[in-house]
Specification:
By secondary structure, this protein is an alpha/beta fold. The chain has three domains: about 70 residues, no CATH class; about 350 residues, 3-Layer(aba) Sandwich (Rossmann fold); about 260 residues, Rossmann fold (3-Layer(aba) Sandwich). The strands form four sheets. A nine-stranded mixed sheet has the order 5-6-7-2-1-8-9-12-13. Helix 19 crosses helix 31. It is globular. The structure holds ligand 26Q.
Length: about 750
């Protein structure tokens, strides 16, 4: 049946009318059903082994457009709607975005699912179906507040499977009900699945804020992603979530193994398991438990699990490495305790070094240690990150198991992050080099031949301007924020964290503000845009948001400053906003303290969309710099080895870095002190601002003051060079041309070759 006939039939059945009589939401529902069915009916790819990608987060973004592209019917549907006088963009805006992730790690999992399917590899995701997501961010009195973010409508991408498993918790069992989201592969006839487990009786939405009864596990287990962990009930709930996900996932793996006709003692021949950070680490003892229940010896079970499981590390921040009190596990899943203790006993026997213990002297279970001992692969997510893991954070493990360590530099799917989010840029690239890059992003390098082609460079600038205009329009329409499309767009979007140093960007804003007030005008108008959610219990991060929102207000009402400098912060930054912001960006802010950002993936998306990076030599920025050359990136700041050195030393806090030394430089002091200036105190909350001020000058754990002068100079160089439009367009072109390396298709091919061996 033709597409238009199918659509007609669907709208008749559902709404009793023809498509042209439907409202936007009805058309969205009809297209959802149409594409969902097409994807669902596709067969799974075949292979000797099947991958299960376990992750507590999958930040999928809207799926309609993506799925239309993967199914190869995007242009047809767009035309069909146009014939009805309707716009696909408007229909897409009806789709709610699921907020099932915090940031990079969750979005990476989503890009990986897209690439695994596109490469025709058999691999499913396993996660949880959080009903109210992370949270929806709202600004009130220039402070972040959190409200639930429901996304599941009567019709959604979720497909009920009728499959469920019993998860045995200490003292009670809970049914894990399985929903699937089909993941169609681009350029092939297959589809994989994202398996999301849910409780049987989810609680209704808490209407006041994001508070709920954290003791009511049976109803609230899947209410929120990472509920506030500032109290013990929150942390315990997280362990319940983790065990629920991995126990149900492990049972699913064994059921599928059996239905494929294989016995449990051949698990590793047929199954690969990727553990996305330590959140799913309990899958290891759970599988050992289930395999021994099915008759394997502990030795054989451990051997199978080790050959199946591989662990990805995403962070070097010690505070983010999960350690759970054994008493938590005793309460949540007492049946795991003997397994973990036996693993601990064996590893201690072989490796008495206390730094590599699974259970430490305080009875804390180190999840990463369990993964490394009991898996066959450990990978970092960018070259520098993997080297730091080997040489410092995980050195004792690298000394024991050098063969397990490998690097897999992150990547992003160009289907969403170039083809879908900037179709005009994609079409321009097609005109230059044909459309082969859409299957093999490395071919973008052929664009290098156009570096001196003035028509192409001019067109590139026009496409960028069109995206800036579009963003201005959307910011105005949806957030009531007025921007100047003629200004330089400098964008920092990512989770709010002190190590990412949004506060250093705020100091830049202050320096420009003071310059303008003193009559020193910048070379050209600049707009500094932010988007960031802060963890609800992370007070310092919330204070930084407060500072940014106060600066915005201060500048917004100052007619002397406003023409030259504008600041805006997108409320509830998410994947959809990223898709609008990234194509409109001139300068990509990647300014983490060197050694702290494992990789970054926003940096790659910006680059692919022709933004020029302003960044430290951290994470994948190092690889970006190597690829584009120093002409085409602005780097600044202390190097990672220097920074690592500064964290060792004789000061009372264990470092040799003394923020006051930097604070007392005249150029720095006036910036920091502005936080408690009468102008700002008149706008903001004096307690919040002065706490932030105190922290910045006395603590500055992530060393913003160390790099701030160099940062300001680098950004000013960047803004100066922007004036030579042709030269700038050439930088944009080189960045796009070199971005192909950061396709997640490349990353997934490497995971498959080195770790999963699926085909
Ligand atoms: C840990 C313990 C208790 C509660 C929460 C957590 C927790 C939750 C989320 C720890 C970490 C995360 C998320 C981490 C994350 O997003 N990391 C990012 O991963 C990206 C993909 O590899 C990298 O590009 C980023 O550099 C890294 O910060």
């Amino acid at each position: 049946m033709q597409l238009n006939e199918q659509l007609w039939q669907l709208t008749q059945e559902r709404f009793g009318c023809a498509p042209d009589q439907c409202d936007d939401h009805q058309l969205y529902e009809a297209l959802l059903l149409l594409t969902r069915n097409m994807a669902q009916n596709r067969p799974a790819p075949e292979g000797t082994r099947k991958l299960y990608y376990f992750s507590a987060e999958f930040l999928m973004g809207k799926l309609l457009s993506n799925n239309l592209l993967a199914l190869g019917i995007h242009d047809q549907v767009k035309q069909l709607l146009a014939d009805l006088g309707r716009d696909l963009g408007v229909i897409e805006s009806m789709e709610p975005e699921p907020s099932l992730g915090n940031g990079g790690l969750g979005r990476l999992a989503a890009c990986f699912l897209d690439s695994i399917a596109a490469l025709g590899l058999p691999g499913d995701g396993v996660g949880l179906n959080y009903h109210y997501g992370l949270f929806r961010q709202k600004f009130a009195h220039r402070l972040q507040t959190e409200v639930p973010d429901p996304w599941i409508e009567a019709d959604s991408w979720l497909i009920p499977t009728g499959v469920s498993f019993d998860v045995p918790f200490g003292g009670f069992d809970l049914k894990a009900v399985l929903y699937d989201i089909a993941i169609p592969g681009a350029h092939n006839p297959y589809a994989n699945r994202l398996h999301l487990f849910d409780v049987a009786e989810p609680a209704p939405m808490p209407w006041v804020g994001i508070d709920f009864d954290k003791g009511d596990i049976a109803h609230h287990l899947t209410s929120f992603l990472y509920p506030d962990d500032s109290d013990e009930a929150g942390r315990l709930l997280r362990v319940y979530q983790q065990y629920f996900m991995v126990s149900a996932g492990a049972q699913l793996i064994l059921a599928e193994l059996e239905s494929r006709g294989f016995t449990p003692d051949t698990l590793a021949d047929h199954v690969a398991i990727q553990i996305n950070d330590t959140h799913p680490s309990m899958v290891i003892p759970e599988l050992i438990r289930l395999l021994t229940q099915r008759g394997l010896t502990f030795d054989d079970a451990l051997d199978q699990v080790r050959r199946a499981c591989a662990y990805t590390n995403h962070t070097i921040l010690a505070e983010a490495l999960e350690k759970w009190p054994l008493s938590f596990i005793e309460k949540v899943a007492p049946q795991l305790v003997p397994v973990i203790q036996e693993l601990d006993r064996r590893m201690k026997q072989a490796h008495p070094d206390p730094r590599v213990a699974i259970v430490d002297s305080q009875n804390l279970v180190h999840m990463a240690h369990m993964d490394i001992h009991c898996g066959h692969s450990v990978n970092g997510v960018a070259a520098l990150h993997t080297e730091i893991l080997k040489s410092s954070e995980l050195k004792p493990f690298y000394d024991i198991y050098p063969e397990k360590f490998n690097n897999k530099t992150n990547g992003v799917t160009f289907r969403r992050w170039l083809e879908a989010c900037d179709p005009e840029l994609a079409a321009l690239i097609d005109q230059c080099i044909g459309d082969g890059w859409r299957r093999d992003a490395k071919k973008l390098e052929e664009l290098l031949a156009f570096q001196e082609d003035e028509a192409v460079l001019d067109r590139l600038l026009e496409v960028k301007q069109a995206k800036k205009n579009r963003l201005c329009w959307m910011m105005w329409a949806e957030q009531g924020i007025e921007l100047d499309p003629q200004s330089v767009f400098d964008i920092q979007v990512k989770r709010l964290h002190e190590y990412k140093r949004q506060q250093m960007n705020a100091l830049y804003i202050i320096s420009k503000y003071l310059d303008i007030k003193a009559g020193r005008l910048p070379e050209r108008p600049v707009t500094i845009l932010f988007g960031a959610k802060a963890a609800p219990a992370y007070t310092m991060a919330k204070r930084i948001i407060h500072l940014i929102l106060c600066l915005r207000k201060l500048i917004d009402r100052d007619p002397q400053v406003r023409p030259w400098l504008r600041v805006a912060m997108v409320e509830n930054y998410n994947v959809t906003w990223a898709e609008r912001l990234i194509p409109a960006c001139d300068i990509s802010e990647q300014i983490s303290l060197a050694s702290k950002e494992a990789s970054g993936t926003g940096n790659m998306k910006f680059m692919a969309n022709g933004a020029v990076t302003l960044g430290t030599l951290d994470g994948a920025n190092v690889e970006i710099a190597q690829l584009v050359g120093e002409e085409n990136i602005y780097t600044f700041g202390q190097h990672s080895d220097t920074v690592i050195g500064l964290y060792k030393g004789g000061e009372p806090d264990g470092r040799s870095y003394r923020p006051l030394d930097y604070y007392h430089r005249p150029a720095v002091e006036r910036l920091v002190d502005f936080l408690v200036s009468p102008e700002l105190l008149a706008i903001g909350n004096p307690t919040e601002l002065s706490m932030l001020w105190q922290d910045m000058k006395n603590k500055d754990w992530f060393m913003a003051l160390l790099d701030v002068e160099d940062y300001i100079a680098a950004k000013d160089r960047c803004l100066h060079d922007y004036g030579d439009r042709r030269a700038w367009a050439r930088k944009m072109l080189v960045n796009i041309a070199k971005s192909g390396y950061f396709s997640s298709d490349r990353t997934i091919e490497q995971y498959n070759q080195d770790i999963w061996k699926l085909k």
